[in-house]
User: Fold this.
Amino acid sequence: MMSWDEWANLDAIGLADLIRAGHITPQEVAQQVALAVDALNPAISAVIEVFDDAVHDPMIDGTNPAGGFAGVPFLMKDLGPTIKGRLQEMGSLLMRGNRSTTDSYLTQRIRQAGLNIIGRTTTPEFGLCSSAENPDVYVTRNPWNPDFTTCGSSAGTAASVAAGIVPIGHATDGGGSIRIPAGVNGNIGLKPSRGVLSVAPYSSDLMGVVSVQGCHTRTIRDTAVFVDNCRGGAPGEFMPYWMPPEPYSELIRRDPQKLRIAVSHEWGDYQATPHIVAELERSAHFLEELGHHVEWVIPDIDYRAVYMAQTECYIMNFAQTIIGLLEQKGLEHPPADLVEPMCIRVWEEGRSATYTQRAKMQGVFNNTSRKLAAFFEDWDIILTPTMARPTPLVGTKEYLTISDNPSVYDWFDNLWGIFSYTPIANLCGLPGISLPMAVLENGLPMGIHALSKQGEDGLLLQLGAQIERALNGKWNHGRRPALHVTSIDAVTKQL
Assistant:
């Protein structure tokens, strides 16, 4: 077993290099992750389950030892791609005991990439709300300060990567669920373009593909290698899948050419707090010093229409998800003791939605996508904060699906007030990335968010790599969370 300081200084590729050189085995690396979970999980409640058999035998489920990650341990969010023979409970009491019978296509790609899936991480019920905080299920806490939330919905993965338990973990993003918790926890979170990582076999139209798959990491190269190894469509995909002219792991070795970067935070009715704006300004100036052209410009789109369309999409999509799960269980209504109140209200609101509503929603999606595509003819990057407001305290019910807000629409509008800048990427299929460049007034991490045009995921990673080099790899100003593998001895004594 290596020291925790050594462990914390290695990213996934660093671990893979040690495995390939024979200095450590995939089993030993998996055992170290299991030890980290045992030590830290009681304080942060990020990991639901560790697969002991995959720790004992990293190749048991088909992990490819010759893949880019060479057997590095990987935690899977308990939502989205399924894992054959494993539980997937989606953060819901209703789904307790639900066991998957097949590996999803992306799960197969993850295994082929050499990642050993050794456990599953927390998520709010069906991934709908901002953090994993139902006391009847679990309450996931921010390793930087456990009084605060991790946000979500990739809550457990965000906390696990930030705390140093694993260097890389699975995440999903239907409105910011990769980027928001990445910003809150000080991780790197890339939401890929629509048509990069497959969601097969579950999605076949715009109602589903607002949600994409991805990962959390602590280095740009880990994200690049993950996308390089896991990208591509399954047989029968209904849309083309982007394939770059060179692997991202090669592209990121070079700085991008001088970029045209549009900076903004006033999006319709939503704007950031003064401190967050000041941090955005500081980050924009930093990019200017790197040689890029930076200018404050607000994209000319109908923000009210955009967020209403996103709300309608969520309501219709999640209502159908719940309807499908109820059918599986032979139920006509969501049981109030097993499904959270806002999820029931979403089901009630969306179960009778009409095709006309859907067509209007898709019309807004189309118009907005065309306008932003035209905007990206003049600009390479849009830079915003990842969130408009500071990280909420644990138990801030107004953002949770245990909220008693009687209005679904008011609840969503409140969400957009804090998560103002991420959903538009899902609506338009754009790539977006949260980079841990900034700090909130209370010392918690703050993400800086960059968007680019569809298919330009590599450009975001290239810019991220340039920033990473300029910072000498010291994201988060070189700081680490209070609850971290390097403090395991102290944490264990406290517990």
The mean pLDDT is 96. Residues 24 and 69 are 13 Å apart (CA to CA). The first strand starts at residue 47 and ends at 50.
